Amino acid sequence: xxxxxxxxxxxxxxxxxxxxxxxxxxxxxxxxxxxxxxxxxxxxxxxxxxxxxxxxxxxxxxxxxxxxxxxxxxxxxxxxxxxxxxxxxxxxxxxxxxxxxxxxxxxxxxxxxxxxxxxxxxxxxxxxxxxxxxxxxxxxxxxxxxxxxxxxxxxxxxxxxxxxxxxxxxxxxxxxxxxxxxxxxxxxxxxx
Length: 192
Description:
By secondary structure, this protein is α/β, with parallel strands linked by helices. Helices cover 27% and strands 25% of the residues. The strands form 3 sheets. It has a 6-stranded mixed beta sheet with strand order 5-4-3-2-1-8. It has a two-stranded antiparallel sheet with strand order 6-7. Mean pLDDT is 75; it is low at 141-162.
């Protein structure tokens, strides 16, 4: 019987990963009047933390030219790490000192509870919908008259896109005989 021999075959460096943070996390900037809304999709974790902070800071800097409010819409995130949440809370505290209020929107009640009990993230305002965040940041935009309230208008802040914007609950007439009138519904939190 021959003794088993092992040969050390040197392995080259590991193949670089083809995934980038841009592949894992996407951002879209919207505006509600002077309020900036940063809608985020994908997974926000340690791998994408640098990109997350860069985009949040860019959006917060653009909010300083307006009324000083930024809403991070994380309702479409598949994952939001506590590390990323802590970084957002730290950025929110820094920008609050210069007059920019940052609010997180998430439909995940567990995440909101965790953020409330952690002393590092307890000061971060968290709401369940963008409409609630807009109302909390600028309560004067939520009322039309005495005792009457309306949902705030959310429009795209991208240049060159001319799309109509509708209020939640507004009746939109059908354009042809085959399309009936429709009522625009307000966004509701996603359940998992």
